[in-house]
Amino acid sequence: MDCVWDKGSASVKDVYEVLHVKKGIAYTTVMTVTGRLAEKGLLNKHQSGNKYIYTPVYTKQELMDMVSKEVLTGLFADDRQPVLSNLVDAFEGLDREELELLRKEIDKVIDDKNGD
């Protein structure tokens, strides 16, 4: 996905040329993965001559937001206490500015709950 995001649109060959140098990935692997990403609705695919060109359906930020919301929704579906404890533990690695941002976001949620 990063290759396609970076280029805006790319063929399998374009992605392969980047990934083969960086990671030694085979052309057929790139072809399979790009095809699957298109099937899953993450890449648009259109034919240009004798090759397919892939473009991202979502920006990187949009996809990260969607995936993180889906993961968190799944984690909070059952017992929330262990998840909350682990989140608080993870906050120890944040700097003061990030913690203040988090506090503001939590305050917004609390204000919304109080407005109900």
Q: Which percent range describes the beta-strand content? A: 5-15%
Discrete helix count: 6
Side-by-side strand order of the widest sheet? 1-3-2
Major β-sheet, in short? 3 strands, antiparallel
| Overall structural domain count | 2
In helices, the fraction of residues equals 55-70%
Spatial extent as radius of gyration: 20 Å
Determine the N-to-C terminus distance: 40 Å
Spell out the helices and strands N to C. HEHHEEHHH
Mean pLDDT rating:
93
User: Would you count the extended β strands for me?
Assistant: 3
* Overall 3D form: elongated
SS class: alpha+beta
- Unreliable segments (pLDDT under 50, ≥5 consecutive)? none
Topology:
Blueprint: H1 2-7, E1 10-11, H2 12-23, H3 27-39, E2 43-48, E3 51-56, H4 60-75, H5 80-91, H6 96-115
Antiparallel strand pairs: 1-3, 2-3
Helix pairs in contact: 2-3
